[in-house]
Amino acid sequence: MVKVIRPSERDSGTAQTPGMVRQAAISAGLTGSEGLWMGTAVNSPGACSAAHHHGSNESGIYILRGRVRFRWGENLEHVIDTEPGDFVFVPPYEVHMEENLDADGEAELLLARNSQEAIVVNVPDPRG
Fold first, then answer.
1. Which residues does residue 121 pair with via DSSP β-bridges, in sequence order?
2. What tens digit of pLDDT does each residue of 9-23 get?
3. How far is CA 72 from the centre of its chain?
4. Strand-strand pairing, 96-100 and 68-72
5. Of 23, 14, 9, nearest to 117 (Cα)?
6. The whole model's pTM is what?
7. Among candidate residues 39, 44, 57, the one with its CA nearest the CA of residue 109
């Protein structure tokens, strides 16, 4: 059965990372999906998420609004800036963080994962 999830119906009870707010939209609980999870994340103006990974999940991220800097790698040594329309692929277990480069506006991301497990493993910042 086709289901539509309106913005007011999204679930903020999903796993969170400091510095961003995630909301589930397509999930087992909201739609009965078995293999796909989708949702959104919002970073406040100038906010940077904590370092984290998503376990064995592959993650796809689409930049809806704002300019976002991604850092990844063993010491978060890799850096790339993204803007609306960009897609980002994050492989399993890749430690990463997202930083909103706009001090005046929110950054909004569309998230997709290939698992129903809400795996978010927040880790200490490897840069010390």
1. 53
2. 999 988 888 889 999
3. 13
4. antiparallel
5. 14
6. 0.91
7. 39
